[in-house]
Amino acid sequence: MHGWRGGLGEFVYSAIRVQRCLPKRTQRRTPRRTPRASPLRRMGRAVARLRRKKWSKGKVREKLHNAVMWEKNTKDKLYAEVPKYKVITTAVISDRLKITGSLAREALRVLAAEGLIKPVNVTAGCKVFTRATAEVA
């Protein structure tokens, strides 16, 4: 019987027996062509490595180092400049003051509560504010 029975020796023996029983391979009908050496192989491996395609990593953006806590100069800049912007969003504040998004969202809440900015469109996804102008009546 062929296959695994008990010991490794028996398996090897049965595999050899199967190999002997198989018919010999017939000759190929068409003769094999001798492969020609490609120009890159003739030049050598060093040159071949230089000519290979080098995959680019695409555009790599620079890492942002935004502040994660309020500093005095950042807070002063927040109260001085942000209420003068025409469009005020989390992204705008985060980008211009170089602070994280969570600090920018907190800044929006504080400025809106103090009345320095007024809401244009407030949804769960995107909060858009504008400067609070003195209304003349």
UniProtKB/TrEMBL annotation:
It comes from the Eukaryota. The keyword Cell cycle does not apply. GO terms for cellular component: ribonucleoprotein complex; ribosome. InterPro entries: Ribosomal_eS25. The lineage of its organism: Eukaryota, Discoba, Euglenozoa, Euglenida, Spirocuta. This is 40S ribosomal protein S25. It holds the Pfam family Ribosomal_S25. Belongs to the eukaryotic ribosomal protein eS25 family. The keyword Ion transport does not apply. Keywords: Ribonucleoprotein, Ribosomal protein.
